[in-house]
Amino acid sequence: MPYFAKLFLLIFCLVLLVESRKHRRRRWTSQLEVQKASHIYKKNHDLTKTRKGKTEQLLRVDDHDFTMRPAFGGPAIPVGVDVQVESLDSISEVDMDFTMTLYLRHYWKDERLSFPSITNKSMTFDGRLVKKIWVPDVFFVHSKRSFIHDTTTDNIMLRVFPDGHVLYSMRITVTAMCNMDFSRFPLDSQTCSLELESYAYTDEDLMLYWKNGNESLKTDEKISLSQFLIQKFHTTSRLAFYSSTGWYNRLYINFTLHRHIFFFLLQTYFPATLMVMLSWVSFWIDHRAVPARVSLGITTVLTMSTIITGVNASMPRVSYIKAVDIYLWVSFVFVFLSVLEYAAVNYLTTVQERKERKLRERFPCMCGIPHSKTMMLDGNYSESDANSLAGYTRSQVVPEEEKQEKMVVHLTMSSESNSSRKRGLKGHVGLRIIQNTHAIDKYSRLIFPGTYIFFNLIYWSVFS
User: Which residues are CB-neighbours of 462 under 8 A, at least 6 positions away?
Assistant: First the structure.
């Protein structure tokens, strides 16, 4: 029995010794790991950025009333602004507005947000902290729609420096009004502006200014528009007065747009010019071809009406005349006058033929006079024209009271002096001179093109 007791005691002591060694080894290993981690942490991290508690506790957000501006009751707080234009998305002539995407950044100092830092590094936060501190209440004057981008999260950045300086940046798309003058459209240039202003704080509480003057506005070199050439961006600032609230600082982003003319040359000016030139073709068509000349005139008039309607459909209903309206309506008048010209030619020809028909009925036969031939002349011919026919003598056979209506001239051929004409005329043949081309058509072939070319010279010299 004593032998078994000694053996049990020996085994128990061995077990205690093994467990004691294992415990010491684990404790020694854990101390080495703690020392190593502490050394790495001190080497790579700033103690001010250790998240021992909430961020709000580090910035002491709960210790201050951020519903009031910094230095409330004191001088106006200066808030610097700079803008980087990412894109100019669209320009609408019908709605008279533009859409722009930009990065809007504010700079100010709020000592309530200062914190201790050994390395003097800033802290960067997203939009969740913005709702708990004071930020400037800047809005866009004359804006129709605007929003902060929220994909994949709200595009808001807040950077706080140890001395209390704050950088607040947002990515915004805004649609704002632009007062456009279309009196020279489409040979025009438009100047639009995006205006920024504090909504609640007057100039006595908040001083809004461009942080670096004209250098505060940056633009992307790839910005372009299909119909416009962006000439320049620049910044201005001034005070705006409201009778009920007072004076406010207002910042302006101004940009000038020059319209490309080539699109309108192809779609408006060239078709209108071609229609006017096409209407002149009727001056070379026989006035007796009524269907051809009437259909040509109606086609050109309707085409000009379609061009005018299409241009006005894409424009606002302004109460003044645009440059394109002058060109299109003058072209329309030229086309319409070509139709009226044929109406005048057709009417005068009908009157002339009616008078000749009456005259033939009154003098049915002139062939009884030997060695003579008869030529009927209407009012377009004078007596000097009849006398200019060499080798002929004139004898008057029409009574005096009928002389004003129609002149009938008998021309007696002299056999001695006009032997060559006898061979051409081959005997006593009655001839009648009938004009197939009216004198109005002859004059129109010169007057219409000349006047239209003169109009184009004046138009392009004034508006280009």
Answer: none
Q: Hey, which residues does 156 pair with through a beta bridge?
A: 170
- Is the domain of 345 the same as that of 215? no
Could you list the pLDDT tens digit for every one of the 464 residues in the chain? Answer: 565 666 666 676 776 776 777 666 666 666 655 565 455 444 444 444 444 445 555 667 766 777 888 888 889 999 999 999 999 999 999 899 999 999 999 999 998 888 887 787 888 998 888 888 999 999 999 999 999 999 889 999 999 999 999 999 999 999 999 999 999 999 999 999 999 999 999 999 999 999 998 899 999 888 888 889 998 899 999 999 999 999 999 999 999 999 999 999 999 999 999 999 999 999 998 888 889 999 999 999 999 999 999 998 888 888 899 999 999 999 999 999 999 999 998 888 888 888 888 888 877 655 544 443 444 444 444 444 444 444 444 444 444 444 434 443 343 334 444 444 444 444 443 333 334 457 888 899 999 999 999 999 999 999 98
Number of structural domains found in the chain: 2
Residue 197: give its domain's CATH number.
2.70.170.10
**Which of 216, 235, 259 is the endpoint of a domain?**
259
Question: Same domain, yes or no, for 273 and 254?
Answer: no
User: Do 224 and 132 share a domain, yes or no?
Assistant: yes
- Find how far residue 380's CA is from the centre of its chain: 56
CA 460 to centroid of chain Cα atoms: 20
Q: Is 458 exposed, middle or buried (0-12, 13-18, 19+ CB in 10 A)?
A: exposed
The answer, as to whether pTM is greater than 0.70, is no
